[in-house]
Each structure stands twice: as structure tokens, then as C-alpha cells.
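This part of the workshop introduces the protein records we will be handling. As an example, a complete record with its sequence and its C-alpha cells follows.
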Amino acid sequence: MKKLARFFISVKKEMKKVKWPNRKDMIKYSIATISFVIFFGIFFTCIDFIVAALTQVVK
């Protein structure tokens, strides 16, 4: 039980050292992440359709 308590005390100390992003940075990072996810989702969907069409032609 003492080990567990020491662990959480250490976690609390380390979390105080973390530099959290401010609101402006968090919005910027969120927009960048969502943009990349949408872009690559569309990109891989297009690749999937192209490969599917090519496999239909080859059959």
C-alpha cells in the first residue's frame, strides 16, 4: 500500500512540472489534427476506390 501511495505522490509531483498548452495553442493543435485526419481519410478512400476499380478491370 505504501508503494502505491508513493507512486501517486510521484505522479502528482511530475504533473506539476508539465507545461500545459494555452487555449490558443490547443485550438491550433486540434485544428491541425482534425485537418490531417480528414485529409488522410479522403486520400485513403480515393486510393481504395482506385484500387477497387483497377481490380474490376483486371478481372
Q: What stands out?
A: The helical segments are 2-17, 23-58. The radius of gyration is 23 Å.
